[in-house]
Amino acid sequence: MEQLRELIAFIAKSLVDDPDAVQVVAVEGEKTVILELTVAPSDLGKVIGKDGRTARAMRTLLSSTSARYSKRAVLEIIE
Amino acid sequence: MDENKRSPEMDGALLIDNDAASETKSSYSEVPLQEDGKAELACEMLIEILAHMDLQAEVTIRENAEEVVLDIKADDVGRIIGKKGQTLDALQFVINKIVNRFPEGRRHILIDCGDYRERRENGLASMARREAKRAMQQSRIITLEPMSPRDRRVIHLSLAKFPGVSTRSDGSGLDRRVRIIPSRRGPRGGGRFSRNREE
What we know:
The structure holds two protein chains of two kinds.
Chain A: H1 2-15, E1 23-28, E2 32-38, H2 44-48, H3 53-66, E3 72-77
Parallel strand pairs in A: 2-3
Antiparallel strand pairs in A: 1-2
Chain B: H1 8-24, H2 38-52, E1 57-63, E2 68-74, H3 77-81, H4 86-99, E3 109-112, H5 116-138, E4 142-143, H6 149-159, E5 165-170, E6 177-182
Parallel strand pairs in B: 2-3
Antiparallel strand pairs in B: 1-2, 4-6, 5-6
Helix pairs in contact in B: 2-4, 5-6
């Protein structure tokens, strides 16, 4: 699911101070894809956001995209 | 970016407004058109994100003194807007986070898709009027579902001149809701027990 991985990587890199530390690993299952997002510890707040709003917005964009592949995509932010 | 291209008149206006802004910490709404390149940056980022979402789209910038609006034109409008506009709102949220990463010169970017925002505002306003009538007829407070600040604002404005009701927002964060309060209120519990109002 390269497409989904790149979508999250692109958004995350645009949000953080340290884009080089951004990593997205896709773990593909039968019906779901889990995207594990890692960022620099100091950037965690930037990808989560107040009350998790940034993470929620990324998840919304992700599911809108993954629906095209009839897959459920889950975004996990690794702390 | 285009720092040097500003006309002298504009510079004056900017100075005055920047002062006002720093004093009152007021929002972007009073700052005149700024050629700070943020609208263009937002536009580029939006196109990139849409491309990553497999959406071919054209984005045009509508900019005035008060706001920057990015208008998306595409075939797959439904997917760009999403349920109740949630995809459009998510795009708008992320773009604002990216463009306003640094506190100085924050600008609010609005993202629209055709006349979607206008249609939604009209829909919200007519829903508000309907509920206001209901609040008056039943003499009880009607609490709407949780909404974004912008949507709540539309409700407040649309009922500002509506006779017989006032509005208020209650709750915090994502659970903030508008309450429509009739000025003549019946007894607690929705007026089912018709007690004499003047006791």
